[in-house]
């Protein structure tokens, strides 16, 4: 049985696909629940709104990006590090699909303003995640 984070990510992937195919307004919580094989009540226990269903996929992308930058050694340029890191930490097929989905959702915030709040919530987490990474690069405390 998957843990809560895995279950939320699984539902998030399905919700993102539905939003992309149908649009946010044409997708209900019931639709997401049916696609996930869960009750609508369970969906609302996992997520505060249907739009927030995209957050786990977006967060996975931002967490991965922060981890890549956190591994950046001081002696390498960013370009050199990104190449080396891609070899040392290859993405799985699912990771690639999730990155693609996250990019589609981010791009769709222009035409689907209802997703903008969820996008900004995750972006706020990204900014907070950058603080220790940048502090380390500058040899400063992260507080």
From TrEMBL:
Entry keyword set = DNA-binding
Q: Which SUPFAM superfamilies match?
A: Homeodomain-like
Q: Name one Pfam family in it.
A: TetR_N
Which one of the record's GO molecular function terms can you name? DNA binding
Chain ranges of the HTH tetR-type domain: 5-65
DNA-binding region range list: 28-47
Q: Under what name is this protein listed?
A: TetR family transcriptional regulator
Q: Which organism is it from?
A: Mycolicibacterium holsaticum
Taxonomic lineage is:
Bacteria, Bacillati, Actinomycetota, Actinomycetes, Mycobacteriales
């Amino acid at each position: 049985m998957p843990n809560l984070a895995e279950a939320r990510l699984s539902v998030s992937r399905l919700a993102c696909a539905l939003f992309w195919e149908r649009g946010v307004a044409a997708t209900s919580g019931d639709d997401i629940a049916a696609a996930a094989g869960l009750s609508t009540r369970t969906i609302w226990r996992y997520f505060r709104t249907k739009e927030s269903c995209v957050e786990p996929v977006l967060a996975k992308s931002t967490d991965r990006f922060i981890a890549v930058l956190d591994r950046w050694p001081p002696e390498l340029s960013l370009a050199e590090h990104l190449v080396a890191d891609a070899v040392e930490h290859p993405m799985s097929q699912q990771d690639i699909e999730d990155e693609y989905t996250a990019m589609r959702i981010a791009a769709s915030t222009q035409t689907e303003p209802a997703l903008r709040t969820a996008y900004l919530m995750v972006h706020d987490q990204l900014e907070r995640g950058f603080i220790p990474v940048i502090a380390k690069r500058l040899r400063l405390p992260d507080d």
